[in-house]
Amino acid sequence: MGHDKGFTYSRSHNPTVSALEARLAALEGAELCTCYGTGLAATTALCLALLSAGDRVVVSQAVYGGTVRLFRQVFANFRVDAQFVDTSDEEALAQALRTPARFLFIETPANPTLNITDIQLASRLARAAGALSVVDNTLLTPALQRPFELGADVILHSTTKFIEGHNATIGGALITRDAELHERFLFARNAIGAIQSPFPAWLTLQGIKTLPLRMARHSQNAIRIAQFLTDHDRVTKVIYPGLQSFPQFELAQRQQKTGGAIIAFEVAGGVEAGIRLMNSVRLCALAENLGAAETLITHPASMTHADVPAPQRQAAGITEGLVRLSVGLEDPADLIRDLDQALSNTK
Ligand SMILES: Cc1ncc(COP(=O)(O)O)c(C=O)c1O
């Protein structure tokens, strides 16, 4: 066999993608990373690399709707049994792990309820049960949360969000410190053809240069807006891990560097008022994405989580009137003005 330079075909390796992989691994405090065309392609590769028919996995009850759809409507057809549990409930988690599982998949904070799972505790319980622990770190990024330091085996990202940060690409990543797991991910990625393309990888490398600065500004803006919403008479509930009223405030303080950039809230008047709010904003954009420079507003029950069965949505706390705000990098005074005028239209 001849000696190649390490790059023979871009479905297996590509120099720009490798540069992104090295950067992401370093940011998470690891050495090994594989990048994918989307976050869901990363989740798909994870499953194909680790699961066989008849295997079981335990998944957080409140996760991104596409993750639920993948397990319920795709992998279920291949006899993979996914049990969705409230992973923030120690007893429920321990109970679910009593039956053998290949891995535990947690998303924390969860999209969109911001429910927090204690990563250290969950990873310890998973390890004791012989299961790998996988953490979806999309909502906080390594700038605000460090899952490997808390015992995780694999970190998953939708780089589409804060990692790239400008609403310009889609992409995903699997990061690990375990060479054997990494080999499996590489094999699955090549076998199914799910690698990231070089141009979005290059854009993602540009975005990463400002990641810590952006995450700090997103967080500062978010706490100001969360306080504004809390004081607003048209808002009945505000969920933000940086607020003292957040039920898991202490865990958030311990596990996360800040409250993050995502706020969930309910408007007086339920779904109708929520729809009026979303149609009245001028600066915030109505979109499915999160993690962009622009503030994005979403109605999870009809958008990101529409494919999650209604009973699971309710169990996960995704009420019909819940609004999700991905707070951007704008001047917070402008955002507050916009939200204030839109909220006044909900009466
Ligand atoms: C937390 C989380 N994980 C994974 C994904 C899937 O990523 P992608 O849209 O890049 O496939 C999303 C998408 O919204 C997400 O919010």
The arrangement of helices and strands along the chain is HEHEHEHEHEHEEHHHEHEHEEHEH
* Poorly predicted parts: none
Separation, N- and C-terminal Cα atoms: 73 Å
User: Portion of residues in helices?
Assistant: 40-55%
Radius of gyration: 20 Å
Structural class: alpha/beta
Task: Tally the beta strands.
Answer: 12
Main β-sheet: number of strands, strand sense, barrel status? 7 strands, mixed
Which percent range describes the beta-strand content? 15-25%
Bound molecules: pyridoxal-5'-phosphate
Number of H/I helices: 13
| Strand order across the largest sheet | 1-7-6-5-4-2-3
Shape: globular
Mean pLDDT: 95
Q: Would you kindly provide a written description of the structure presented here, covering whatever features stand out?
A:
With 347 residues, this protein is of the alpha/beta class. Helices cover 40% and strands 16% of the residues. The chain has helices at 15-28, 39-50, 65-74, 90-96, 119-128, 141-144, 179-192, 198-208, 211-231, 249-255, 270-280, 310-315, 332-344, and strands at 32-36, 56-60, 81-85, 103-107, 132-136, 154-158, 172-176, 235-239, 262-267, 285-286, 296-298, 322-326. The strands form 2 sheets. Strands 1-7-6-5-4-2-3 form a 7-stranded mixed beta sheet, with helices on both faces. Strand 4 (103-107), helix 5 and strand 5 (132-136) form a beta-alpha-beta unit. The N and C termini lie far apart (73 Å). The model has no long low-confidence stretch (mean pLDDT 95). The site of pyridoxal-5'-phosphate has 14 residues, from helix 2. Pyridoxal-5'-phosphate binds next to helix 2.
